[in-house]
Each structure stands twice: as C-alpha cells, then as structure tokens.
Amino acid sequence: MMAQASPLIDWQWIWRNMGEILDRTWQHLSLTAVSVALGLVISLGLTAVVLRWRRTYTPITWVTGLLYTIPSLALFALLVPIVGLNATNAVIALTSYTLLIIIRNMVAGINGVPEPVLEAADGMGYTRRARFWRMEIPLALPVIIAGLRIATVTTVGLVTVTAVLGLGGYGYFILRGLNTFFWTQILVGVTLSVVLATILDLAFIWLQSALSPWARSPK
Amino acid sequence: MTVWESMREFLSEPSTWSGPDSIWVRLGEHIAVSVAAVVIAGILVLPLAVWLGHIRKGSAIATAVVNIGRAVPSFGVLAIAFLIFVQIGAGIGEPWPVLVALIALAAPPMFTNTIAGIQTVEPTTLESARGMGLTEREVLTGVELPLSMPLIMEGVRIAFVQVIATATLGALVAWGGLGRFIVDGFAQQDVGELIVGAILVGMLAIAAELGLSATQRATTPRGLRVGR
C-alpha cells in the first residue's frame, strides 16, 4: 500500500461534501443528545435511590465505574450479539459511560447543600419533597451541570468511535480518511468534533447562569 | 452458528494461541506500548508539574489542559498521529504513531493531578515545615510530595486506564494490540473473534484499574488514610 501525498486541506472537497457534513453533524448531535438525556434520566433515578438508602452509593458507583472502565470499542463489540450493529448499540454504550460522572456530581452537589439552609427550609414549613425540589436541587445545580458538561464533552469524543458500527457522526470522516490517506477528511472530522464539544460546553455554561441567577458574579 | 460456537471455533484455532497474531503477542504489544507511553509522558510532564505545584502557579493552565484534552477525541489524536507518520515516511503498521498519540493522551491527567495535588497541601503545614528549618528542597520531597502522592497516583491511574482503552483503537490505524481482534472481528463479521477480543480488552482495562487503585492506596501516607 502506497501513501499518497495530499494537500493538507482540500477546500473543494469540503464544498462538494457540505450535504454529507450536515448529515453527519445531525447524526453526531443526536447520538450525543439521546445518550446524555438517557444518562441524565437514569442517573436521577439512581441518585434518588442513593439519597434514600445511603448504603447503595458504594455498589452503584462500583458498577457504573466498572462500565466506565471498559474501553468503548470493546463495549460496542460486546453489545453486537445482543442488539446488533446499530444506533441502539451505540446509545446503550454511550449512555453507560455518562452514568458514573453524572451520579457522582449529583450526589456531591446535593450533599454539599449547607445544613443551615436545610434547617431554614424546615423552619419555613417546607415539606421534604418541596425542600428537595425548591432548595436542594437548585443549590446543587452548578455541581450537577458541571457533571453534565463533562459527560457531554466526553460523549462527543466517544461518538467518533461508533464509526466501527457504521455510524460515527464526524468519526465517519476520520475512519474514511484513514482508509484513503486523505488528510482533509481526518482534519474535518477531528476539528468539527472539537467544535461541537466546545459549543455544547458553552451552552451548558449559559444554561447554568440562566438557571441560577443568584450565583452570577456581581458586576 | 451461535455466539458460543463461534467463540469456541476462534479459540480452537492454533493461530489464536501461537504465531505472530496470537493472543500473547497482541497482549504483549498492548501492554508494552501502554506502559511505555505512560512512563515517557511521566518523564516529560511530572518534573514541570511538580515545580509548578511547588511555586503555586499553573492551576489555570492545568484546568485548560484538562478541558482541551477532554474535547479532542482520542480516535482523532490517533488518526492525526498516524497520518503525520505516514507523511514523514514511516511504515504502515509500526507502533510509533500509536505511542506518540498515547503519550499525548497520558500527559494531561498526570500534569493536572500533580499540580492540584501539591497545591492542596495546606499553607499552614508548609509554614510549620519552613518554621522547623526545612530547606525548600526538603519541603518539597519531605512534605509536599508525600502528602500529594494519592492525587499524583490517581493521575497516573487515570492516564494508564485511558491509555489502555485508547491503545485498543490502535488497530484502526493499522497497528496491533488486543484491538486487532475486535477490528478484524468487525471487518470479517466474525462474532467469535469480536467477542473474545472485547472480553480480553475489558479484562485488561479492569485489571489496570484495580491494580493501580491498590498502588494508589499503598502510596498514601498512613496519616492520610481514611479508615474504610
């Protein structure tokens, strides 16, 4: 196999393939969004379990930590006989990687709410449920969103590996570029993946400041 | 053919156990490149990180390094390293691009955890150490490094586990390692090879994680250990 020298960036190729780039952007974004959203829902449930029964924290972080440790390529492969080569496979694996990060931050955030605040809420006559939704969750929000940011940025990177399942989002360009020794495709794939991760990260920062106005630094 | 039958068939082939593509060769490659990457990355970044931690600078750089490191996909780093090596004339299938990519991925967690670890040492502790007449060097080696060892070792653990995981992707850039079985399994639609490869990779990653967690506990100074 001979390596062909190709120009670093072939702008014409980018123009010609704009449609494909947009399709892959949508694929990358939807795989990320579905996985993080599912991860958030499952983590909310598991965090509720941890807050109710404290002793479940160690086994839950142990199991989600185990999932987190399994390399993505191996997890996609292990799911093939169970669900096949498809988006379901990708979403199950990607979701499982978000759990440890989101749960750890949710529990840390809620545990970090100062005791006097809780006492004040009790004194004001809040029920346990109202106190949870109107005091603990809003005050824990910065830490919870920090977890969602890490989970999202990590997921954007991992989506590229789903190229082996015939998906990949921008990872499709990286895999194609590797097979054809075409620089432009690889650089487009990597750059757009970094850009998408950065945009989503900034979106979460904006969301956090919109949802917790009291935490904004006074100007 | 069921998954079990297909796995049994792959495991009963002689080439699975001996020769240049055997499990042993692939496992050896995988571990050798991963260990080399973490050791080289450590030699490159730990002295700088220790010094920055000691003079209490660089926490902003450390945060930036980790954030950027997280946004760049490991698969992309491997692909770029591969193409650079191909352009400068390296042979296809050589381990060098994988090694360089893994060094780049191992460096950020070690760098950041070391700086953070040294800076978490309480200023009052350092004041008493200096008050007792310790030199700057003794403060560093006798107080700051032992107290920050758990966090430094955590950085090494995170880096090593990530490197083991990413070395799996080396098979996508024509290298070997245990990922070879998974990538070949996908390409040839050989479920047996695919699953055996995935189990081996998963076991290696979990072994690395558990092994280094134990090291992390062992290097924690007795005074810092939390009874658990």
Describe the structure.
- The complex is a heterodimer of chains A (219) and B (228).
- Chain A is mostly helical.
- Chain A is built from 9 helices and no strands.
- Chain A has helices at 11-16, 18-52, 57-69, 72-83, 87-111, 115-123, 128-159, 171-180, 183-211.
- The longest helix of chain B is centred in the middle third of the chain and has 33 residues, at 136-168.
- Chain B is elongated and about 75 Å long.
Structural descriptors:
heterodimer, A: 219 residues, mainly alpha, elongated, B: 228 residues, 78% helix, 0% strand
Number of helical segments with 4 or more residues of chain A: 9
Order of helices and strands of chain B: HHHHHHHHHH
Could you give the count of β-strands of chain A? 0
The residue ranges of chain A in which pLDDT falls below 50 over 5 or more consecutive positions are none
Total count of strands of chain B: 0
The percent of residues in helical segments of chain A reads over 70%
How does the major sheet of chain B shape up?
none
Gyration radius of chain B, rounded = 21 Å
Structural class of chain B: mainly alpha
Helix fraction of chain B?
over 70%
The termini of chain B sit apart by 48 Å
Low-confidence stretches of chain B: none
- What is the succession of H and E elements of chain A? HHHHHHHHH
Task: Tell me about the largest β-sheet of chain A.
Answer: none
Task: Give the termini distance of chain A in whole angstroms.
Answer: 61 Å
Strand content of chain A: under 5%
- Percentage of residues in strands of chain B: under 5%
* Residue-averaged pLDDT of chain B: 92
Counting copies of identical and different chains, the oligomeric state is heterodimer
The shape of chain A is elongated
Count of helical stretches of chain B: 10
Per-chain topology:
The complex is a heterodimer of chains A (219) and B (228).
Chain A: H1 11-16, H2 18-52, H3 57-69, H4 72-83, H5 87-111, H6 115-123, H7 128-159, H8 171-180, H9 183-211
Helix pairs in contact in A: 2-5, 2-7, 3-5, 4-5, 5-7, 6-7, 7-9, 8-9
Chain B: H1 3-12, H2 14-17, H3 23-54, H4 59-71, H5 74-87, H6 96-119, H7 123-131, H8 136-168, H9 179-188, H10 191-218
Helix pairs in contact in B: 1-10, 3-6, 3-8, 4-6, 5-6, 6-8, 7-8, 8-10, 9-10
